[in-house]
Amino acid sequence: MGLFASVVVGFTFLINLLLGFTAYNNNPKSWTNRLLAILTVILASWTIFNFFALLPGNEATRLFWVRIVMLVTSPMGAVTYLLASIFPKDKFSVSNKKLSVIYAIVLVTAVMSMSPWMFTSLKNLPNENFSLTPGPAIALFAVSHLGLTTLAFIVLIKKFRQSKGRLRFQFLLFLLGNIFTFTLITVSNFVAVVFLGTIQYTFIGPTFTLFLAGFITYAIVKHRFLDIRLFVVRSVTYALLIIVLAFIYAYGFYVIGQLLLPVHSEISEFLITTFLALVMAFSFQPLRRFIQRITNNVFYQEHYDAAQLLGKMGRIMATNILIEPLTAEIIKQLLNNLKISRGAFLLLKNGNLNSKYTDGFSGDILSEKDLQILVTHVSQDKAAADGIVVFEELAEGKIKEVLRKADISVVVPLSSKKELIGLLVLGEKSSGNVYNSEDINFLEILAPELSVAIQNSESYEEIRKFNITLQQEIEKATQNLKAVNQKLKEMDQLKDEFISITSHELRTPMTAIKSYVWMVLNRHADTLTPKTHEYLDRVYKSSDRLIRLVNDMLNVSRIESGRVILTPLKFKLLDLAEDIKREVQARLAEKKQTVTVSAGDPEIMVLADREKVQQVFENLVGNSMKYSPDGSPISIEISADKGFAKVTVSDKGKGIGKDDLSKLFKKFSRVENSQIAPPEGGTGLGLYITKQFVELSGGKIWVESEMGKGSKFIFSLPLA
Ligand code: ADP
């Protein structure tokens, strides 16, 4: 038993106690932490008593220490079993029946271990060795210790097989630590002693507890086993802070006291104390931050410039309006800079999951039920503080269970106008370290800005989707309209065809009627009584009107369907005007009207379809006759100007009102206030057809008229 053994024992003892203390301090209410603390105390006591037993001494003393070793280790199996059953929960959930049995076993073993039935005697051997004579109760110890330890293994293996993710790994570490420690200890300190009768290896025993301590520590540091790392880091920060402050105070008091020595009095002491108290009050916060930064730097190498990163995030939010690139880029930056393993945005609508953007998380991340638990928790928590949920800082419970299952380390609630719009969930740090206060501060500052950016993106997305739907609706409506329009066109064509056919069919019999009546009236007038003559005259005029109406309809139908055929020829306008004058002579005489034809140049020739131009003349002169009182003069003037012939048909009728001028050339436009109602009525098609014929011939038509001052209809035609 040299210095080496003492150091090993001391070291093992301290590590075990430190671990137990830290675990207990982290969460004194948690039975997992409590049992771990108890176990480490047992291990530490066992380490130290084992050391005492091995020290040189008389046989009685050594036997006493051996029995003490047996006493303190008697509950070891039971505690291991209970820890395995409860881990990682806080509540003590072992049935009373089971517990009573365990208590009984432990109690009997403990009592027995102090009796001669466990170890009857001890015999000192050379080289500070000794040999032990076991009694029958050793079997009880073996059964209770090995039995309960084996049960603990079974429980751990079962839990390990049923768990997933980080928890599974933690069980594995726990299991491995246990297996190593207890197997090795059982071999060195039990099997060797009892079956081989040697204590040669007993001193190594305590070292093996370091396996358990080592594995558990690894699990804590790397996999947040029992989640006490943050506590350790914060403890160090505050310990340092207290040391520095105490130093400042003591040193300050000393130095200032020295300076003021000559005037040392109670007053000066009071002044110094007040001054130092003020210094402390003002320096506490900056100092805390400073020390925190130093400890963070020591404990967390992965440092980043928070201000710079915030700037970068701001730019990303300002330049990305679409939700997908925005969330992807934000997560990417967070993962890269804060060295986080995975992250995801869970965006909510009315408290339910609406969309999800993830990097590194697989599957659903959270079940619907778990998400609801988290949302409820965050919504309640929000009023209290910043609302960020940190796994390490949570007490064992439903929320912690949910986060553990989903492998989430931090939850940042995103809310706008007090409404929770989503959650930013982050996995553990890639390095295995915990989130430090700088990270949490950073996320706290980022959260509100991020919430606004995400909500803007969501609104934009909504508008975009609405626009797309709108466009689709418009396209559909346009398609419908096109179809309806096509149908209308077809119907219009059908109508044109109908008019064209019926007009055509009507014209032939009407012309026959008119011709026969004309013959009776002109060739056999002498055989007619005056009454019959009058009646036949009316038949003649009516049939003439009907023919003109049918002709108008036919013309309109041809114009509208683009079937007007023009055969341009050169002819003298004056000749045509004279022809017209002759044609209407009989009707002129009836109304005692006169038509005068004049031409600036009698040779004015145009290139046009003579028949159509004749119809133009007939319409205009006919209208002048119709809408002028009996006996009034009508004139036709022909002139030429700038490549066009111009024909003006004027009358001295009552004229046309200003409001009606624009309507004249439209289809079926009958001007209501025609001062002189034409005896034979009209269709309102004449001027429309006239205008179309003039324009088809390359000319123009317009009217100049004033109420009471007659009308002038002027049209032009290209000169030949
Ligand atoms: P309608 O068959 O009725 O004569 P028009 O198209 O030839 O049809 O003429 C349209 C309307 O223009 C007429 O109803 C009439 O009121 C008016 N109008 C045409 N020519 C004259 C004119 N020379 N003087 C007065 N009113 C006229």
Describe the structure.
The chain has 720 residues and is an alpha+beta fold. It folds into 4 domains: 3-228, Up-down Bundle (Rhopdopsin 7-helix transmembrane proteins); 230-301, no CATH class; 306-464, Beta-Lactamase, CATH 3.30.450.40; 564-718, Heat Shock Protein 90 (2-Layer Sandwich), CATH 3.30.565. Helices cover 63% and strands 12% of the residues. The chain has 21 helices and 14 strands. The protein has helices at 3-26, 31-54, 59-73, 76-86, 96-113, 138-162, 165-195, 205-223, 229-259, 266-299, 306-319, 323-337, 368-384, 398-406, 437-523, 530-560, 573-583, 585-591, 610-626, 658-661, 686-696, and strands at 119-124, 130-134, 343-349, 352-359, 389-390, 410-416, 419-426, 569-572, 594-599, 605-608, 633-641, 644-651, 701-705, 711-718. The strands form 4 sheets. Strands 4-3-7-6-5 form a 5-stranded antiparallel sheet, with helices on both faces. The protein has a 5-stranded mixed sheet with strand order 9-11-12-14-13. Helix 6 runs antiparallel to helix 7, helix 7 (165-195) runs antiparallel to helix 8 and helix 15 (437-523) packs antiparallel against helix 16. The longest helix is centred in the middle third of the chain and has 87 residues, at 437-523. The chain is rod-shaped and about 180 Å long. The chain binds adenosine-5'-diphosphate.
